[in-house]
């Protein structure tokens, strides 16, 4: 979503304006001069357009220490913004500090809207036109406290934003799509047959849905699922004719067509390269993942010991995968598959509200800042969740981050918000 930064001297009413725009009493921190305040980002929406609004500390150029830190933060927020709202107190008029801020904003070359705040009546509105002298064009007179003028301002904000990306294509209605994959002989067809037996039917059609003839509809755990490309599994065709290469293409296509994959492993045998390739297909495609260890009836205490070690070693890239131990032969724990699929999909589609995300992130980067590199430590300014399915996060920063630090943020993000069963992407956008 586009980023709108709210900048201005302390006490001009930035937080009140942010509250007005997000329509909630969330940014309640008082704008006290000299009090350092971190940037806080929130989700906002106007006329159906979503954006992120970043409340900055009060901008005081050339002042010492804390005020300087605030100025640096404001500049950093401007650098990452798509649109800047520069707020002036219309009762005070423009000050030297405002003029210095305008010079900084000019250098940033970002679209800037001049907001004349605390304009509570028509007379003050006429007086606010004197702010043209700041050279930022037409001032937008508003009363953040009472709401006056905020609609016109937001219309102008939308105008100044970059063109919207095409809307997320809504998930087609109908059953959730599952790929049941795994190397030959791990028990895919046995599991499919077991599901058909346990759950009464692999149904062939559901009212109002059209299903590819190579797919199956299955009733699992009280819900209908579309199992992608199971024709070969059901009829046991193509087993002899397909080379490993074509089998692998087919697996990849099934994963692509699905939302969640059940990767079947043979728990009675070591995890091998071919299993790893299939797991990589799932994470690279960004699909939700349930790992099913099949043939659990063959796992005795000895094997269990070695399997645990194999899991630690071979699956350490995907500690977040949901694991289920099943037996297609005995039916053991087959009923755990549907809840696992539901949980993985819910996390795959999870959206963390921007305010919540940033409150957590601010505390995290304060407690554990990025290590110093060459005398400087890049700072994380704020974050947004760019998309879901799978969840993708963007960190706005003052510079490139160590890969290790990005992994640390991802690990903490998973701990805090629970992304079990889904890959998560964290990318870094250093300010320009
Ligand atoms: P696919 O190639 O992945 O479809 O695997 P199959 O379903 O054809 O199974 C391969 C072999 O493993 C067959 O001999 C099955 O009977 C056997 N098998 C499948 N699941 C289990 C299980 O849970 N326990 C045991 N003991 N054998 C299994």
Automatic annotation (TrEMBL):
Protein name as it appears in the record: GTPase Der
Keywords: GTP-binding, Nucleotide-binding, Repeat, Ribosome biogenesis
Function of the molecule: GTPase that plays an essential role in the late steps of ribosome biogenesis.
The keyword Nucleotide-binding belongs to this UniProt entry's keyword annotation: yes
Positions that bind GTP 2: 182-189, 229-233, 294-297
Single GO term (MF): ribosome binding
GO biological process, one term: ribosome biogenesis
Family according to the record: Belongs to the TRAFAC class TrmE-Era-EngA-EngB-Septin-like GTPase superfamily. EngA (Der) GTPase family.
Database matches in InterPro entries: AAA+_ATPase, G_ENGA, GTP-bd, GTPase_Der, KH_dom-like, KH_dom-like_a/b, P-loop_NTPase, Small_GTP-bd
Stretches assigned to the EngA-type G domain: 2-165, 176-349
Subunit composition and interactions: Associates with the 50S ribosomal subunit.
Gene this chain is encoded by: engA
Positions contributing to GTP 1 binding: 8-15, 55-59, 117-120
Domain of life per record: Bacteria
Entry annotated with the keyword Hydrolase: no
């Amino acid at each position: 979503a586009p980023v709108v930064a709210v900048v201005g001297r302390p006490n001009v009413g930035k937080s009140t304006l942010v509250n007005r725009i997000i329509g909630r009493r969330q940014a309640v921190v008082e704008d006290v001069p000299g009090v350092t305040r971190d940037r806080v980002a929130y989700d906002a929406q106007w006329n159906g357009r979503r954006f992120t609004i970043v409340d900055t500390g009060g901008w005081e150029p050339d002042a010492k220490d804390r005020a300087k830190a605030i100025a640096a933060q404001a500049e950093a927020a401007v650098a990452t913004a798509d649109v800047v709202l520069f707020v002036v107190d219309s009762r005070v008029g423009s000050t030297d500090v405002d003029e210095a801020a305008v010079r900084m904003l000019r250098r940033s070359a970002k679209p800037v809207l001049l907001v004349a705040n605390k304009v509570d009546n028509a007379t003050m509105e006429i007086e606010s036109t004197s702010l043209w002298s700041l050279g930022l064009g037409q001032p937008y007179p508003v009363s953040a406290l009472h709401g006056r003028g905020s609609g016109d301002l937001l219309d102008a904000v939308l105008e100044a934003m970059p063109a919207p990306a095409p809307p997320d294509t809504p998930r087609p209605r109908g059953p959730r799509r599952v790929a049941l994959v795994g190397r030959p002989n791990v028990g895919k067809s046995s599991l499919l047959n077991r599901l058909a037996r346990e759950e009464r039917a692999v149904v062939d059609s559901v009212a109002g849905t059209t299903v590819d003839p190579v797919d199956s509809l299955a009733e699992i755990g009280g819900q209908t699922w579309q199992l992608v490309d199971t024709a070969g599994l059901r009829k046991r065709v193509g087993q002899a004719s397909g080379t490993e290469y074509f089998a692998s293409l087919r697996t990849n296509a099934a994963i692509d067509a699905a939302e969640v994959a059940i990767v079947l492993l043979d728990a009675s045998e070591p995890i091998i390269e071919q299993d790893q390739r299939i797991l990589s297909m799932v994470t690279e495609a960004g699909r939700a993942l349930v790992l099913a260890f099949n043939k659990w009836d063959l796992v005795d205490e000895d094997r269990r010991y070695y399997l645990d070690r194999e899991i630690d070693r071979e699956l350490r890239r995907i500690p977040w995968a949901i694991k289920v131990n099943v037996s297609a032969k005995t039916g053991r724990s087959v009923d755990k598959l549907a809840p696992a699929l539901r949980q993985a999909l819910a996390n795959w589609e999870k959206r963390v509200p921007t305010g919540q995300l940033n409150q957590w992130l601010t505390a995290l980067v304060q407690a554990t800042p990025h290590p110093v590199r060459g005398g400087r430590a890049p700072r994380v300014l704020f974050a947004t969740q760019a998309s879901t399915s799978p969840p993708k996060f963007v960190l706005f920063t003052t510079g490139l981050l160590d890969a290790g630090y990005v992994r640390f943020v991802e690990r903490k993000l998973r701990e805090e918000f629970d992304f079990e069963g889904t890959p998560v992407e964290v990318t870094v956008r250093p300010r320009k």
